[in-house]
Design a protein that fits this description.
The complex is a heterodimer of chains A (about 110) and B (about 110). With about 110 residues, chain A is mostly beta strands. Helix content of chain A is about 0%, strand content about 60%. With about 110 residues, chain B is mainly β. Classes of the chains: A mainly beta (about 110), B mainly beta (about 110).
Chain lengths: ~110, ~110
């Protein structure tokens, strides 16, 4: 079964600290992996998109890594800010005739002052 | 910037009512999507469209229909709302390949069916 599992489900950190969110997937073969940020009550916003040949991609204080061999990705947030409080969603695209996007259930991050 | 606008942020409807959720995008994107989002579950695709008047079923099309009469507008219709359709509904659009294009989401429509 094609799945995308994210951990932890929720995380609380202090402002200014770094954190790392994990995404493990069993989707095979896969076309690309995306990370989205979703503020409470809003739609998701794209952070990064990586193909299987890329192993790191940055967007400001957000850095995503991908290990296609172990089917793992991580999203590292540096020097967290209160505005980073949100859900972070990992999405894997299956590379077959369906090209289906498979969404993880997200990690809810709370940054406290 | 790409803007995807959903007509209603919050709706409350009664069981059996017909519900229309409207979505408009302003970037001439070919592809448009309707997802629902429930706590603890990933986004699930209801329907998508890759061209005017074209539609494809997603993972959970039962109880829903869609309409795309114009390129910029994609409507989700609940013919007879039921309580299990209480959810957050998200519209998205993209250009290029259905699977490779970056998705741009609307703000969401939270529907409560009583």
């Amino acid at each position: 079964k094609n799945q995308v599992e994210q951990s932890p489900q929720s995380l609380i950190i202090l402002e200014g600290k770094n954190c790392t969110l994990q995404c493990n997937y069993t989707v095979s073969p896969f076309s690309n992996l995306r990370w989205y940020k979703q503020d409470t009550g809003r739609g998701p916003v794209s952070l990064t998109i990586m193909t299987f040949s890329e192993n790191t991609k940055s967007n400001g204080r957000y850095t995503a890594t991908l290990d296609a061999d172990t089917k793992q990705s991580s999203l590292h947030i540096t020097a967290s800010q209160l505005s980073d409080s949100a859900s972070y969603i990992c999405v894997v695209t299956k590379m077959d005739s369906s090209y289906k996007l498979i969404f993880g259930s997200g990690t809810r991050l709370l940054v406290r002052p | 910037d790409v803007k995807v606008t959903q007509s209603s942020r919050y709706l409350v409807k009664r069981t059996g009512e017909k519900v229309f959720l409207e979505c408009v995008q302003d970037m001439d994107h070919e592809n448009m999507f309707w997802y629902r989002q429930d706590p603890g579950l990933g986004l699930r695709l209801i329907y998508f469209s890759y061209d005017v008047k074209m539609k494809e079923k997603g993972d959970i099309p039962e109880g829903y229909s869609v309409s795309r009469e114009k390129k910029e507008r994609f409507s989700l219709i609940l013919e007879s709302a039921s309580t299990n359709q209480t959810s957050m509904y998200l519209c998205a659009s993209s250009f290029g390949g259905v699977s490779t294009g970056e998705l741009f989401f609307g703000e969401g429509s939270r529907l409560t069916v009583l």
